[in-house]
Amino acid sequence: MIEFDRVSKKYGDITALNSFSLKVPTAKITVLMGLSGSGKTTAIRMVNKMVTPTSGSVSIDGVDVAARDAVSLRRTVGYVIQEVGLLPHKTVRENVSLIARIAGQPADVAEGNATEMLTMVGIDEQFFSRYPQQLSGGQQQRVGVARALAIKPNILLMDEPFGAVDPIVREELQDELCRIQRELGLTIIFVTHDRHEAVKIADQLVVLSNGGHIEQAGAPSELTATPANAFVRKILGV
Ligand SMILES: Nc1ncnc2c1ncn2[C@@H]1O[C@H](COP(=O)(O)OP(=O)(O)O)[C@@H](O)[C@H]1O
Ligand SMILES: [Mg+2]
User: Fold this and answer.
1) What is the pLDDT of residue 166?
2) Is 166 within 8 Å of 90 (Cβ atoms)?
3) Paired sense of beta strands 2-11 and 14-24, if any
4) Are 233 and 159 part of one and the same domain?
5) For a substitution probing ligand 1, which of 10, 11, 18, 214 has the most ligand atoms within 8 Å of its CB?
6) Nearest to 92 by CA among 108, 115, 109
7) Per-residue model confidence (pLDDT) at position 111
8) Nearest residue CA, atom 12 of ligand 1?
9) Which of 67, 80, 98, 133 is 20 to 30 A from 145 via CA?
10) C-beta atoms surrounding 13 within 10 Å
């Protein structure tokens, strides 16, 4: 379990997060949904120590991440964002295996993991030796997911990963993500502002307003059936 315990983050006068507390269950998908600026990115980047809390703590299985070495922590936490950021002069396979190498895997293991994960996300072998710009946006995003999985993480942080993908491909990516999550037993925190995506993939759906204030959290069916307030009704369109 990942636990945010009264976490605050201030940037000068701005309070990005104000005493944010949340339990993220293991091997489930938790979706954070909220308007732009509500602190979603700040919250998830605390899990892999890209952001340090001003106060409060984030722990993984009872261990405060503040006490963890950032490099070894990031070997167990995958990170996927909308801007996939593949290296243009490396092939698809190299883009994935390189990350596994950096995470300390021997070359042959890294190669094997790259092949396995590319296959898992649905990239055909004929694309392995191509370059990123020869791929569609949807394929590039799949490679981004494969790259995050190649380090064999047990936690995956996903910050609006499918925002730039067209609707039909986006549906496919959501389906495959859910399949992969079950297959690998991943703990996923997924940020989106798309209500259909949120309701579809979430085990736990968390609706946030400014400062990371939790308006409501629970199963998607619970939130859509009994929204706690007008804000939740509006953001879920019910
Ligand atoms: N590095 C930063 N420096 C200053 N302000 C920041 C920084 N990162 C985020 N913020 C501010 O914190 C608030 C929350 O931002 P963010 O976590 O990115 O929200 P979200 O991902 O929900 O859009 C916003 O007001 C944003 O402008
Ligand atoms: Mg954000």
Assistant:
1) 86
2) no
3) antiparallel
4) yes
5) 11
6) 115
7) 94
8) 16
9) 67
10) 5
- As for how many domains the chain has, the answer is 2
Ligand nearest to the CA of 83: 2
- Ligand 1: centre distance to CA 189 (Å): 18
Kindly write down the DSSP assignment for every residue of 77-115, as one continuous string: EEEEESS----TTS-HHHHHHHHHHHTT--HHHHHHHHH
83, pLDDT greater than 90: no
Mean pLDDT of the chain: 95
What pLDDT digit, counting tens, does each position of 88-111 carry? 999 999 999 998 898 888 999 999
CB of 156 within 8 A of CB of 78? yes
Contact yes or no for 205/198 (Cβ under 8 A)? yes
CATH number of the domain that residue 208 is part of: 3.40.50.300
pLDDT, tens digit, for every residue of 200-231? 999 999 999 999 999 999 999 999 999 999 99
Residue bearing the CA closest to ligand 1, atom 5: 11
Query: What residues does ligand 1 touch, defined as CB less than 6 Å away?
Result: 11, 14, 16, 34, 36-42
In terms of residue numbers, what domain contains 148? 81-152
d(CA 83, ligand 2 centre) in Å? 12
- Characterize the bridge pairing of strands 29-34 and 187-192: parallel
Choose one of 9, 13, 41, 192 to mutate for the ligand 1 pocket test, by most ligand atoms within 8 angstroms of C-beta.
41
Statement to judge: residues 221 and 124 lie in one domain? no
Q: Which two tokens stand for residue 208?
A: 């946030």
Contact residues for 46 (Cβ-Cβ < 8 A; gap 6+): 4, 7, 9, 52, 53, 58, 65
The atom number, within ligand 1, closest to the CA of 39 reads 17
